[in-house]
Amino acid sequence: MTAGTRPLPTEFFDAYVFDLDGTVYLGDELMPGAARAIAELRRRDIPVRFLSNNPTRDPDEYAAKLAALGVPTPVADIANTVVTTAAWLAAHHPDAVVFPIAEAPLVRALTAAGLRLSEDPAEIDIVVASYDRAFDYRKLQIAFDAIWFHKRAFLVQTNPDRFCPFPGGRGEPDCAAITAAIEASTGTTCRHSFGKPDPIMLQTVMDSLPGVSLERALMVGDRLQTDIRMAIDTGMPSAVVLTGEATPTDVASLPPRLAPRFVLERLDQVIPATVWDELGWFASDPS
Asked: Which is more confidently placed, 76 or 169?
């Protein structure tokens, strides 16, 4: 089997790291082949981990969603930008006063990490831009005053995504839109990003896979500029699945150094073709 002009995997890797939105599911529906691919990997005792740049849910909520979709998953096997952002700030700036432009999961995580939060521009040290569906002019003004007027705060972001995909081809503006508004008004530049493609996200998940090298783990995602770029920048093999953002044209236009090793039409193509034959799988199967 091949997808486009690139070969599909012919052997199993020692571990698999899957993006969630657009890769494992979209909205409230699993992607074709997702359930059986994950089940087969687990049946063979191959570790599976999940990553997401979406900071509007915490890992517990992702675990509940996966369970509801028929893919029960331990919370410890899930990492997202709620986890990486709170951990980095607590480790590097534990005494900073933080203003999060964020939804409840990230606010809870920052508070649980012992960070002090404030909306007073005169005392804010760090502005955190995030995917915030309650973003308004008031929040932009606080960030502006903290960074531009008081000249004491710097800007970080949870993730660099421009939009979050929805079923039916729709989407919502994501964190990058809020970061851009703050950068444009203040003239500042975001210092750190805690989601893919930043290596901090991959390091977080690899820490949970002792004994597995980057070269023997496979990153699978639907976004070339985040999922695949992170893997390439860190020397990890990658596979793009054409069920989310990336299209065959997008992949074909990449220079070789930025191209994924594999291109999949559906997620279960991470399972080698010889195993498909053994299991009696067909591409027309809906599961």
From this structure: 76
